[in-house]
Design a protein that fits this description.
It contains 26 helices and 21 strands. α7 (192-200) crosses α9, α9 (217-243) packs across α24 (655-671) and α11 (270-283) runs parallel beside α12. The structure holds adenosine-5'-diphosphate (ADP) and magnesium ion.
């Protein structure tokens, strides 16, 4: 166990590493557990009830149980694979134990007649009930009087070690309250000290269910703390932004804007007009805009971006539009060129694949200010690129950008010496449920396009078992005969990009073989940019009937004549992703169909996802279900960041607490700034940056 003397021993002894840490200490650091403060808020994932001994005869599958038993027999079996198998009994019944990985001495422990205390999850085996990889202990050990916490851990860090480390931390850490008495009383919240101690060491009378479901007052207090910390940091971020300066882009309804309006082949929807006005008003202010434009796929966000751009350009500033992929950047470039070049606006394109002389020219145009609108990818925020007078940055499909990139963007302005910061417009087709927007994007103002342009017919979604692939192929043929086009989306192969590519090529070959009369194109992420653009252009202009594609077409791609989408192995895709994909059809006036092919049997979650896709085309409803199925972390695309912003509170379930926490922010900041500071310190170390993206 990690006592101080152990640590010293390991420092001088053989296993000492250059950093002087034991392996367990290093694991703690990996989990972000550095100080006693970190350890005390590392709270149990769940609890195990080791306080009782169960009777084997009364066990049911799914139950976590502890039994005192005698070994009847044990042996290493070789079929169906090598495993250690034992049968044990108490006076009331028998149960089997199995290990698929085991050490030789484990077998010794299980000799016939041995008396053991066994703990594990009961399941239905081949031959009655069994436990797989149960924990084995000694019967003489006294039973604990309270529930045993199980902490989030990592390979190689034992629960025993964590428990000891946390117990020590509880003795030395500052457990004083960061909430003023009045606030605690107003919301009926437990003192921090009591809540935290209870969760680490629940007394015998606390029910396991109230802890598991986080309904216990101790959890309530912790969840409130967490939400408050988050709301506080957002308030601080907002205040910081209000201290920053931006160019006032005050030429509204200028010459360019009017020209754009009168050149449009369609009438803007009311919703589009409203958000254009909201954005327009923000841009006239002397503080940087930080606005999220939400609108379902196909709702017409690009033209809104174009209007924001004309206002900035009318006011003499440059505008940068960033898209997450080259394909999308190219499409935006084409579209914006079509709208804005005739008005005399100079539009320039910059992505990572632009090289040589052309790149140099683009950079010069950006730096000299002769390029007024710059369309590109992440390359736009790379080091060293300087704009002559960047007044507005527009980020399309913002959820597709990593947290790091968004952070880089928000810092881009801050590093500039003049402290004049560009306005920012984020656009996203992933509708963010209200609670989520409120919590994570409190520092973003939100505009919503809530209606689609007229004349669209909702996409009909069909589910088809893979076994019906032939029928689906016939459907493609029928669609093409009607003069329309189809996408065929290849299955996602998460494990390997190479495999993914292979699958796309195989699918292309097989479809081309089956349908020799159709003109079939192939597009995937590994194609050179020029080739991608060529294929996309060819599809758009009708030179291909069918486009076999990977998810490169997922976001933004806009080909109105495409009216059929087939997604293979739809069960491998996430809900948001399927919704995005489906949004590629239904863009024209023809009735569009999306066929989701799946491989049975389906997992429960895949079944729920496909059902959601089948039942609704409403992006908000899909988002809500997605939130239920996946939780907010994945939803926001932050899984890769490794930072779980909300560890304890659930946005779906704790809406009341969210509101209370929001309410408390003002009071904490005005009357109790010292408390607020300590609160942030306890809960938000290292996370502020995240919330600013
Ligand atoms: P998204 O919001 O998904 O980015 P787009 O901006 O790509 O949607 O718009 C989808 C399609 O709808 C485009 O072809 C666009 O030109 C067209 N569009 C946008 N606004 C309108 C409108 N008010 N009336 C008709 N078509 C429109
Ligand atoms: Mg778009």
């Amino acid at each position: 166990m990690p006592t101080t003397s152990d640590r010293r021993a390991s420092r001088s002894g053989a296993p000492a590493r250059p950093d002087g840490l034991t392996p367990s200490e290093r694991k703690l650091l990996q989990l972000g557990l550095r100080t006693p403060q970190d350890l005390i808020v590392h709270l149990p994932l769940r609890y195990e009830d080791e306080t009782r001994i169960h009777a084997v005869g009364g066990l049911v599958p799914g139950q976590a149980a502890q039994v005192d038993v005698t070994v009847i027999r044990s042996e290493v079996q070789l079929r169906p694979r090598r495993q250690l198998h034992a049968v044990v009994e108490d006076g009331t019944g028998r149960i089997a134990l199995r290990w698929l990985h085991f050490y030789p001495n484990q077998q010794k422990q299980l000799q016939a007649g041995a008396a053991l205390r066994v703990r594990g999850e009961v399941r239905r085996g081949f031959d009655g009930l069994e436990m797989v990889h149960p924990h084995i202990g000694r019967q003489e050990e006294p039973l604990p009087s309270s529930l045993t916490p199980v902490y989030p851990s990592t390979a190689g860090l034992t629960q025993g070690y964590l428990r000891k480390a946390i117990a020590r931390a509880l003795d030395i850490a500052d457990l004083s309250d960061t909430l003023p008495e009045a606030l605690r009383e107003q919301h009926g919240l437990m003192p921090f000290r009591d809540a935290i101690r209870l969760l680490h060491n629940p007394p015998p009378d606390v029910s396991e269910a109230s802890l598991r479901e986080k309904g216990h007052p101790a959890w309530k207090r912790i969840k409130f703390d967490e939400l408050l910390a988050q709301q506080l940091s957002l308030a601080i971020a907002r205040e910081e932004r209000m201290r920053q300066h931006a160019h006032q882009l005050s030429v509204r309804n200028g010459a360019l804007e009017q020209a754009l309006r009168s050149s449009l082949p369609f009438q803007l929807t009311e919703a589009q007009e409203r958000v254009i006005a909201e954005i327009g008003a923000d841009l006239t202010r002397a503080h940087p805009m930080h606005r999220l434009l939400q609108g379902d796929v196909g709702s017409g966000k690009t033209i809104v971006a174009a209007f924001a751009a004309t206002q900035a350009i009318d006011s003499g500033q440059q505008v940068a539009i960033m898209a997450p992929t080259e394909l999308l950047a190219t499409q935006h470039f084409d579209k914006l060129m079509g709208w804005l070049a005739p008005l005399g606006i100079s539009v320039c394109w910059l992505t990572g694949s632009l090289t040589g002389k052309k790149r140099k020219e683009a950079l010069q145009a950006i730096e000299s200010g002769s390029a007024q609108l710059i369309v590109g990818t992440q390359a736009l925020i790379q080091e060293g690129l300087s704009f002559a007078r960047l007044g507005l940055i527009i980020l399309d499909e913002q959820h597709r950008f990593g947290v790091g990139q968004r952070l880089q963007l928000s810092r881009k302005g801050e590093e500039v010496e003049t402290t004049i910061i560009p306005h920012q417009l984020h656009m996203s087709a992933t509708p963010i449920p209200r609670t989520l927007a409120m919590t994570f994007f409190a520092d973003l103002d939100v505009s919503v396009i809530d209606t689609l342009p007229p004349g669209r017919t909702p996409v009909v979604t069909k589910l088809a078992d893979n076994a019906r692939r032939d029928e689906v192929i016939q459907r493609v043929v029928a669609e093409v005969r009607q003069g329309r086009q189809a996408y065929w989306v290849c299955p996602l192969v998460q494990e390997s990009e190479a495999l993914q590519l292979q699958t796309a090529e195989d699918t292309f070959q097989s479809l081309a073989g089956l349908l020799p009369d159709l003109r079939i194109g192939l597009i995937h992420g590994r194609l050179p940019t020029a080739e991608k653009s060529r294929v996309m252009d060819a599809f758009r202009s009708g030179e291909y009937d069918v486009l076999v594609a990977t998810t490169v077409i997922e976001v933004g791609v806009d080909v109105p004549n495409a009216s059929l989408m087939v997604v293979e192995h739809a069960e491998r895709f996430g809900l948001a992703q399927l919704h995005q994909l489906r949004g590629r059809v239904g863009r024209g006036s023809a009735q569009s169909v999306c066929v989701l092919m799946y491989q049975s049997p389906l997992s429960l979650i895949a079944r729920q996802r496909l059902r959601a896709m089948y039942e609704t085309t409403d992006g908000f409803e899909i988002a809500r279900r997605d939130l239920d199925l996946r939780g907010p972390g994945e939803f926001l695309g932050i899984r890769q960041s490794g930072t779980d912003i909300l560890r304890f509170a659930s946005l779906a379930e704790d809406t009341q607490l969210v509101e209370k926490a929001q309410e408390a922010v003002g009071l904490m900041r005005s009357r109790y700034p010292g408390h607020a500071r300590r609160h942030m310190h306890r809960w938000m170390k290292g996370k502020q940056d995240f919330l600013r993206t």
